[in-house]
Structure formats: C-alpha cells, structure tokens
C-alpha cells in the first residue's frame, strides 16, 4: 500500500509561514468584505422595515434573519464565488466588472428570495411597498462594483490594508 502524495502547504520555515499568511489574506478578504457589506445593508433594511413597515412585532425572528442568517449566507456565497471565479484569475477593470455582475446575480437572487418570502411573512414591506425591494438592484450592482474595486485594484488593496484587512 502506497501513501498518498500531497504537497505541504505551510512548513516550519518562518519565511513560508509569512508567505502563507499573506496568501491566506487574499482568500479571506472577499468573505470578510462581503460579510461586512451584507451586514451593513441588512442593518439598514431592518431599521427601515421596523420603522416604516411592520413595527416591532416578531423582532427576534427579524433580527435573527437579517443580522445572522442573511449576512452569513450572502457573505459566504459571494466570498466563495469570488474566490473560485476571480481571485488568481483576473485583476483590474475586468475583475471589477465581473465582481459587480456576480454580485448582482447572487445578491439579486437573495433579494428576490427575500421578496418572495416576505410576501408570506410581511416583515419587510413586500406586501405594501414592493418597489422597496425592486429599487435595490442598482444598489446591489453598485455595492458589487465598490467591492470589486477594493479587491481587484491597487488603490483598493491599499485601502483594505489601511483598514486592517
């Protein structure tokens, strides 16, 4: 029986550990950035929904959905898709465009899912104000463009480093 062949990713050399740390940042940045973007958007959506649409009824469910499930799901999905399709493959303007389009596709699907679910639950205004959901698509594209600019341009990467990411 032969042992499986594998490549050691991190060795005991300090130089290799430093390279691995830098490399790890390249792959974790999309997850962190999209999680933060999703969390900020969901805080805004929760505040608007609570103040203008449904009030404080069933807040536990709304908070769990908007501040835990959605940011983790959207940030994880976008981080994984960005890593798989863009990181190490594209850089610059092309990567920014791809990021914006992927964000529109994935988070736009999340928005449509939320709209469909809210038709039943009535938490976030889909029944009384459906345009509130449909006007989000340009903002989703803009958030993807902003994230792509941060991830795939020299100036954006400098900003991420200055923010500690």
Descriptors for this entry?
165 residues, mainly alpha, 77% helix
Number of helices: 6
What fraction, in percent, of the residue positions are helical?
over 70%
Number of domains: 1
Order of helices and strands: HHHHHH
Structural class category: mainly alpha
Radius of gyration: 19 Å
* Quantity of strands, as a count: 0
What summary fits the major beta sheet?
none
Morphology: elongated
Note the gap between the termini: 45 Å
Give the overall average pLDDT.
88
Approximately what portion of the residues adopt beta-strand conformation? Answer: under 5%
Structural notes for this entry:
The protein is mostly helical. The chain has one domain (29-153). Helices cover 77% and strands 0% of the residues. It has 6 helices and no strands. Helix 1 crosses helix 2 (59-85), helix 2 packs antiparallel against helix 3 and helix 3 (93-121) runs antiparallel to helix 5 (136-152). The N and C termini lie far apart (45 Å). The mean pLDDT is 88. Keywords: Membrane, Transmembrane, Transmembrane helix. The chain crosses the membrane at residues 31-53, 65-86, 95-115, 135-153.
Short description:
The chain is an all-alpha fold and 165 residues long. Helices cover 77% and strands 0% of the residues.
What are the SSEs and their pairings?
Elements: H1 14-54, H2 59-85, H3 93-121, H4 131-134, H5 136-152, H6 154-162
Helix pairs in contact: 1-2, 2-3, 3-5, 5-6
């Amino acid at each position: 029986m032969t042992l499986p062949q594998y490549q050691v990713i991190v060795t005991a050399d300090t130089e290799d550990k430093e390279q691995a740390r830098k490399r790890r940042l390249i792959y974790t940045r999309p997850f962190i950035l999209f999680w933060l973007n999703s969390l900020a958007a969901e805080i805004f959506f929760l505040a608007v929904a609570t103040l203008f649409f449904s009030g404080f009824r069933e807040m536990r469910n709304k908070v769990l959905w908007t501040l835990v499930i959605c940011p983790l799901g959207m940030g994880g999905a976008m981080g994984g898709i960005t890593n798989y399709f863009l990181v190490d493959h594209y850089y610059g303007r092309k990567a920014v465009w791809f990021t914006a389009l992927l964000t529109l596709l994935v988070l736009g699907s999340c928005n449509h899912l939320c709209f469909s679910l809210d038709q039943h639950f009535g938490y976030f205004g889909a029944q009384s104000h459906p345009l509130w959901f449909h006007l989000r698509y340009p903002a989703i594209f803009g958030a993807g463009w902003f994230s792509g600019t941060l991830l795939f341009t020299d100036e954006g990467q400098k900003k991420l480093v200055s923010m500690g990411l």
